[in-house]
Design brief:
It contains 12 helices and 8 strands. Strands 1, 2, 3, 4, 5, 6, 7 and 8 form an 8-stranded mixed sheet that branches. Bound molecules: S-adenosylmethionine. The site of S-adenosylmethionine has 19 residues, from loops.
């Protein structure tokens, strides 16, 4: 074990800033202004849920392309090591493979990790089970730490500190996610479909997990504000349009933690809501086949920061 990691293990929370040479006031400031949280939450453990996750969640190609374009400006690629924290079934993890010699996806859920087999096609990508707050890497060894649609579930201050610990100086931390209120477009009825989508999301809102609250965007923005790296950038909306069938759109919304909570509360109501929305979408589009293709508009938000 290196001297630095021995030091890390002896440090009180927040002491890593001092140990890594950022000075006491910098570290204390970060720690006191970190977003408040109690504990990480585990809600991606159920096998049915993770199987649907693998089936319906989309690969964030456009977002990863955008972010890697920014990283390329500052870091020679391929770089040695990227870590995708809260990787789920690896849909985003594999997209990093062309840019790094080694990519490691980490997740706390064994059930999610079992499904990474489907995304194990790249020889330089591997997966590890561990909490986001205790990453199995030595101090200062990682070029990129990312979390895609996952960091709102973590113990945020502890994760940010852990990311700082493992990153190399000059390494990159980037968090991305998207809002629940995705719109769908189809011919000249897109405005009407927007209203139908709102009807789909409204009954789910009371079931948001208290750890996440009413806005994961606000959580990720708070993490950005609390990150003390001087060089950083926040983007509040990056829209991505993708073709998707009506059925897959419904299936995707059903994988959201908030839908799962609603379903746990009343599975019949959840089923009825999905069926009603599917039928309303199809009626508005004047089609009958649920595999009819629509365009889904996803509003991503992200930040990127460079460890000094
Ligand atoms: C919404 S999923 C995102 C998965 C994947 N990154 C994607 O974009 O499809 C969130 C993931 O974070 C994981 N997760 C939640 N809390 C965690 C923690 N404290 N440590 C590690 N993983 C965690 C969950 O198990 C889940 O797989």
């Amino acid at each position: 074990m290196s001297n630095l990691s021995q030091t890390w293990q002896r440090l009180p929370r927040g002491g890593v800033w001092k140990a890594l040479g950022l000075g006491c006031s910098f570290g204390a400031h970060f720690w006191q202004n970190s977003p408040k949280t109690n504990m990480a939450v585990r809600c991606y453990e159920d096998k049915d849920h993770t199987a649907d996750y693998l089936k319906y969640r989309l690969m964030p190609n456009e977002m990863v392309g955008k972010i890697m374009g920014m990283i390329k400006q500052k870091m020679p690629l391929p770089a040695p090591l990227a870590v995708d924290v809260g990787c789920g079934s690896g849909q985003g993890t594999v997209l990093l493979a062309p840019y790094f010699h080694q990519v490691v996806g980490t997740d706390i859920s064994p059930s999610q990790l079992e499904n990474t087999q489907a995304n194990q096609t790249c020889p330089n990508v591997s997966y590890r089970q561990c909490p986001a707050e205790q990453l199995p890497f030595e101090n200062g060894t990682v070029d990129l730490v990312t979390a895609m649609t996952a960091a709102h579930w973590f113990d945020r201050p502890r994760f940010l500190e852990e990311a700082y610990r493992v990153l190399k100086p000059g390494g990159c931390l980037t968090l991305l996610s998207y809002t629940l209120d995705m719109d769908v477009e189809y011919g000249d009825v897109s405005e009407k479909l927007k209203e139908v989508c709102k009807e789909f999301y409204a009954p789910l809102l009371p079931f948001r997990d208290p750890h996440v609250g009413s806005s994961s965007l606000q959580i990720i923005k708070d993490m950005f504000d609390s990150c003390p790296y001087p060089e950083k950038e926040w983007c509040e909306c990056f829209e991505v349009r993708r073709p998707i069938s009506v059925n897959s759109f419904i299936g995707l919304v059903q994988t959201f933690a908030v839908f799962r909570k609603f379903k746990e509360h009343d599975s019949q109501q959840a089923e009825e809501l999905s069926n009603r929305i599917r039928n309303k979408l199809l009626d508005t589009m004047l089609v009958s086949a649920p595999d009819t293709e629509i365009t889904m508009v996803t509003k991503y938000f992200y930040w990127i920061a460079w460890k000094p």
